[in-house]
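pasting Outer membrane receptor protein for the record, 267 residues
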Amino acid sequence: MQKLQLGCGTALLLVASMPMTAMAETDAPSPWGGSASVFYSQNGYDKDDYRSLRSLHWSATANYKISDNYSGYLSSGGYRTYEDKTGDFFTDSVIGLSRSSLFSFGDTGKVGASLQFTIPTSETSRKEDLNTAARLGFSVSGQAVGINFSIAPRYRKNFHQYKTTVNGKVLTEHVVSVVSSVGYGIGDAYLSGSIIGGTSWTYSSVRRDWTYVGQLSASYKFTDALKGALSASNSGVYFDAERGTLGNIDLFNEKAATYTATLTYSF
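structre below
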């Protein structure tokens, strides 16, 4: 994996904060904004167990408001692992454009859309000779009886330099997924649950398993800029593509689940 030479979160934070000075001088609203996050995650196994997974992640996102309805964004990050190969590594970066509302419905409902491209900065993407990936997503969101809800179907197309097996690995061409979430706010606290399910196809049109990740989260807004969150997530297979049967659906496994603590600073 590629060693980090410069904290990309720091670099993005500096870039995103530069227009803030101009805003203070002119008192005009700045089109720039963003956030920086750090989170620690581990599963339920003891750290001496070979199945233990522990890591520290960081990321930063810079947003630019193009108009009332359009925004551009750039996001990147990295992580440090504490098992097997340790060190600091890049994740993939993304650059994208989002439209907050294609149209509205009811009192609170709206449909948004986004298009983003992957910058292959991780070692995994470089080893797979990934040039880029394009992801088109839509989101349907609204509120009912105080509960926020959203559902977001997404489609991703990978563009590799080669379409054959690379380093013994069959490459993925298409990925489809759906993210659903519900949430409820209580003062400065927010409780939410989400689930993402999806599948993928190789360049030879072989479909992968249908997999899922479910997550429960509780967050608290300490200030207008600082927020903390605790979450637990579980993953599994709900349809085995090779056998054509139901997979290993597991609603919650306290050992295999991933537990995460996050701090986010918005600017």
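The longest strand covers residues 130-144.
The mean pLDDT is 86.
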